[in-house]
Amino acid sequence: MIKPATLPLSGGRFVPFVYTIALEGEDLTDATMEMHVRHAADVGGDPLVDLDLAAANAQGLSFTVDTSGAEPVSTIQIRINETTMEGMPAADETGEDAVFAYDLQITRSGHPKAVFFRGTFTVEAGVTQ
Fold first, then answer.
1. Taking burial as the number of CB atoms within 10 A of a residue's CB, which of 49, 52, 53, 92 is the most buried?
2. Percentage helix, strand, coil, to 5, in the chain?
3. Which helix (H) or strand (E) holds 84?
4. 11 and 104 in contact (C-beta within 8 Å)?
5. Does residue 129 form part of some domain?
6. Cα separation values, 75 from 28, 34, 56, 82, 88, Å
7. For 71, how many CA atoms within 13 A lie in the half-sphere containing its CB?
């Protein structure tokens, strides 16, 4: 069983969000992934952001696997387009950052679905639009 890592994520409201995670010793070759951003954990309904596997540089989750070394290294990219970031709900107070919750689930071949990462997802208040 995987114990999820707590990884706070943060990105500007008026720019695309791009974040890369390298997992040493993990071969995710046949994996599927999904990530939701919601107002808070355990809140039902449609997520604010719903990411699935996508082509590199498109909104969603993509990954590469390098097996050339002694241990495999899987590199995950999370990408949220600028228009999606702009459309996220604002904080209660003008000029404050808006804080939400996310988790990233990965299903590896031969393993049950597991949450690898979770934490806060902060949309930083912006000025230049």
1. 49
2. 5, 50, 50
3. helix 82-86
4. no
5. no
6. 9, 15, 12, 22, 26
7. 8
Instruction: State how far the Cα of 25 lies from the Cα of 71, in Å rounded to an integer.
Output: 5
Distance in angstroms (rounded) separating the CA atoms of residues 49 and 114: 19
Q: What radius of gyration, in Å, describes the C-alpha atoms of the chain?
A: 15
- Nearest residue to 80 via CA among 19, 6, 7: 19
At 63, which CATH number? 2.60.40.10
Tell me the pTM. 0.94
Render pLDDT for 77-118 as a digit per residue (tens, 0 to 9). 999 999 999 999 999 999 999 999 999 999 998 999 999 999
Q: Which residues of 40-49 are buried (b: 16+ CB within 10 A; e: fewer)?
A: eeeeeeebbb
